[in-house]
Amino acid sequence: MQNNMQNNLINWYHQYHRQFPWRETENPYFIWISEIMLQQTTTEAVIPYFNRFLTTFPTITDLATASLEDVYKLWEGLGYYRRAKHIHETAKIIVHQYNGIFPNTHKEILALKGIGPYTAGAICSIAYHMPTPAIDGNVLRIISRQYLLKDNIAETKTQKHITSIVAELLMGYDASAFNQGLMDLGATICRPLNPKCDQCPIQKTCLAYQNNQQKVLPINIKNIKHKELHYITGIITYQDQFLLFQNPPGLLENLYGFVQYECESPYRFQEEFENQYHLPLSIVSYIQDIKHVFTHRTWHMHIYHFVLDKPIKGLYTLDDIHNLPLSTAHLKVLKSFLKHMK
Ligand code: SF4
């Protein structure tokens, strides 16, 4: 069974794989950047960011010597900005510890900031052809179906079991084509809902298909506590300028955003603002409600327009804002305000 599966998947991958700019290279730096960008973001959305990023920073040294603001600017709109901060820090470490050359052992790569087991496995297999598993949701799903595994893939012990199955499957095969074949199969054929088993290159070895369980598996029961947060988000203006602040360490670190308080009314917002800034604020109008979803929290932003009657630190014109890294959530807020004012 195993031989058939690997060969069928690898042959299919060579014939039908999806074309992406990061598949035209085995440069580990490029593969690393693509894998980080692809976390939480679709392949189509990543393509222009990937091209722009590597045209601006063609080497690890170029990235390491750039300012964090420049890196954030190129990341603007991709979200999850912590990724950008980590790759910038990691590039500096690679310059200092490895002379700007991407390390080439699994242990060293896994030790780099922002690189977990999946990314380390993907870089090692794609750039260096090492037999390292790269286990993500696609692989957990495909292997559960192939082997009719009825364990919950949200649990660590199931993930470990699947990792050991893939490690065994990889032995003696081209790990780059195998791992990327699983990625493509999961994205295009062995989809979470309604898998296209009639087009599947590894249908013959699929126990879920043989037992008509492909629409049941995998079992994936998560127990993540997801927080719903409600904010009054203030577009605070003084003449043609907007009040922004730069986020402290934590969520959206260093990115600029509008002032917002976790409260239920714009009048409460006024009080909070006056307590913090010691300046009065007038309410002009309600703008819109916007939702922004992060991994473990959802922001419900109830947007209001306020005006200041005196200038304070932190005011920026629209032209200034164009050059500042704004969080994705607050870019949406700004767009909604500008649309409202038209
Ligand atoms: S036969 Fe169906 S369920 Fe099995 S691996 Fe292929 S697409 Fe997935």
Based on CA atoms alone, the radius of gyration comes out at 24 Å
Q: SSE string, helix = H, strand = E? A: HHHHHHHHHHHHEEEEEHEEEHH
Low-confidence stretches: none
Overall pLDDT confidence: 93
Q: Which class of the largest domain in CATH terms?
A: Mainly Alpha
Tertiary shape: globular
- Major β-sheet, in short? 6 strands, mixed
Annotation field: number of helices: 15
Summing up helix and strand content along with how strands pair, one would put the structural category as alpha+beta
CATH-defined fold name of the largest domain: Endonuclease III, domain 1
Give a quick set of tags describing it.
single chain, 342 residues, alpha+beta, Endonuclease III, domain 1, Nucleoside Triphosphate Pyrophosphohydrolase, 2 domains, 6-stranded mixed beta sheet, two-stranded antiparallel ribbon, 15 helices, 47% helix, 14% strand, globular, binds iron/sulfur cluster, Adenine DNA glycosylase, adenine/guanine mispair binding
Structure, explained:
The structure is a single chain. The mean pLDDT is 93. It is globular and about 75 Å long. The strands form two sheets. Strands 1, 2, 5, 6, 7 and 8 form a six-stranded mixed beta sheet that branches. The chain has a two-stranded antiparallel ribbon with strand order 3-4. With 342 residues, the chain is an alpha+beta fold. The chain binds iron/sulfur cluster. Iron/sulfur cluster binds next to helix 9 and helix 12.
